Amino acid sequence: MRVRASQDNTGVLCAAVASGALDVAIGFCAEALPGTVAERLLEEPAVLAVGAGHPLAGLASVDLSTLGGERFALVDRDGGPGYNQAVVELCRAAGFDARVEPDPQGPMTWETAVRNGGAVGLTTRSSAVSTARGIALVDLSPPPPRSRSTS
Description:
Helices cover 20% and strands 13% of the residues. The chain has 151 residues and is an alpha/beta fold. The chain has a four-stranded mixed beta sheet. Strand 3 (71-72), helix 2 (81-93) and strand 4 form a beta-alpha-beta unit. It is globular.
């Protein structure tokens, strides 16, 4: 067996599995593409990600329903349609429509918007490991309901 590791956005990895370039991928809010199967490995609660200097950075927890005035970061359309849909659904379940950039572009879109752009993001603690520099994680209390993409 030969194992080769590759890191990229979930949507890019799913497309690589669908094309046969990869045999398997692990992603966040992955959606099955034609010819593939998505299987849940772990379910974790969402947390809020904010830049280290954001006013919410020092809080122990925040209620998602109070964040309707915030701008939410999304990922590139090709990089994570399942993630983007999950954010929109979680915000709607909390009682508001997420304010988002209409067409985020580029592999570092989410991270840049959260770290330097004043936007907030939703993630999990295990997914945030690679973007933790300059980003504070705040628990959501109560934990948001599961969306179609994350349940």
